[in-house]
Amino acid sequence: MAGVAAPIELLKDVPLFQRVDDRGMKLLASTFTERPFTEGTALTTEGQAAAGFFVIESGSAVVSIDGDERRTLGPGDYYGEIALVDGGLRTATITATSDGNAYGLTAWQFRPLVEEHTSIAWPLLEALAARIRQIEAGR
Asked: DSSP label at 15?
């Protein structure tokens, strides 16, 4: 059922949101929408425009780059964090390997939330910067 807010417990485990206070976390959770997926569905496609950020609640998916499988995603894993800010092209294809459920947040939902609630902005920027450093270090 689309339109259901994300469980706060799910979001608290996402490094991007770990520094956000309880009030900010409630605001974030209410902005996410439920996104069920089915086995075999491409959740993202490498080289296509990015629309948002997703956290997997249940199910699994495989990440591939240039056709090479790189890793498997499962409950609590997330993808698309850079898309929240820049809306750039997807760097990987993510394909569901089982039926499951995720919660999504688009860039056009995220930006006004951060602009209106600046207490969310700085913790998110710090976490995003840390994530970029991890990616650059190859982790």
From this structure: G
